[in-house]
């Protein structure tokens, strides 16, 4: 009797919410806000959900049998994987994502688009190539080439960026050629790759973050730097305020996400006199600030999109690169 009732309840639930899936999240830490919220949202929709610490995912490669082990036990194929790969473990993380891909498991973001978004220069090359406005950016490797590069990005003052920087660390303004030369010399000597970038003066101290899910911007905010700071990162004390994104900005954010090849992305834009300039496309966007600023259930939309993708792949079969 109880079994029958449970069966009926499950059918009613499935009719309301669609099938119950097994969702795996790749994340270093189940306690991180965005990871926690994704788990919560998935469970609220009736899905079985598991967080796998990416670095605890062991891979076995052999002819025709890509396999994954977690803390010594073989991982049963989930129905869909949501990768949340932090910058510090990109290499290993992408290997795990690829392994799941080879196992035929739908992943919300494949390794290639994650890698593209992680490499600031590569991302800007692609965005520029596909007609998206970006701050003019130059790269060179010798001291005597610097003056021309500075000229090419619109002169002084200009922005200097470490290719590997995150959370505002490694973004600087240089006001004189001596400063540019000095910073580059030091950074090159430390083995860093450096970008020179046009300073978008009219956007100094603020930027926009748009969260794209599928083919639309689901939430956006303007981040404003604290006094005396030009970097608007929330980690640097910036503040986020919800914003209804102008259509031009929303279109650019969605297009940038498509160019990089992602389904979900946090797109950072500067508001220039001539419209949006895309700085960056983040493949594992945290959304604590955005949920706080907008009050939206972003985790819910994120999970629903992953589920849609998994169900669509069930019908269409795995992407052709596996065929
Ligand atoms: N070209 C620019 N002109 C004006 N302001 C800029 C420019 N580039 C960056 N900024 C400011 O500096 C902040 C940090 O820059 P950026 O997002 O490129 O680096 P990051 O935050 O360290 O990298 P990540 O977003 O990968 O963590 C931006 O949010 C913006 O406020
Ligand atoms: Mg940033």
Which key features would you list for this structure?
323 residues, alpha+beta, Rossmann fold, Dna Ligase, domain 1, D-amino Acid Aminotransferase, Chain A, domain 1, five-stranded antiparallel sheet, four-stranded antiparallel sheet, 10 helices, 37% helix, binds adenosine-5'-triphosphate, binds magnesium ion
What does this structure look like?
The chain is an alpha+beta fold and 323 residues long. It has three domains: 2-109 and 305-322, Rossmann fold; 137-199, Dna Ligase, domain 1, CATH 3.30.1490; 202-283, 2-Layer Sandwich (D-amino Acid Aminotransferase, Chain A, domain 1). It is built from ten helices and 15 strands. The chain has a five-stranded antiparallel sheet, sandwiched between helices. The structure holds adenosine-5'-triphosphate and magnesium ion. Magnesium ion binds next to loops.
The major sheet is characterized as: 5 strands, antiparallel
Fraction of residues in helix: 25-40%
Strand/helix succession: HEHEEEEEHHHEHEEHEEEEHEEHH
Tally of discrete structural domains: 3
Give the helix/strand class.
alpha+beta
Hetero groups in this structure are: adenosine-5'-triphosphate, magnesium ion
Q: What's the pLDDT, averaged over the residues?
A: 93
Q: Quick one: overall form?
A: globular
For the largest sheet, list the strands in their spatial order. Answer: 13-12-11-14-15
Strand residue content: 15-25%
Query: In the CATH scheme, what's the topology name of the largest domain?
Result: Rossmann fold
Distance between the termini: 45 Å
Number of strand segments: 15
H/I helix tally: 10
Examine the secondary-structure arrangement and name the CATH architecture of the largest domain: 3-Layer(aba) Sandwich
CATH domain class name of the largest domain: Alpha Beta
Radius of gyration: 22 Å
Low-confidence stretches: none
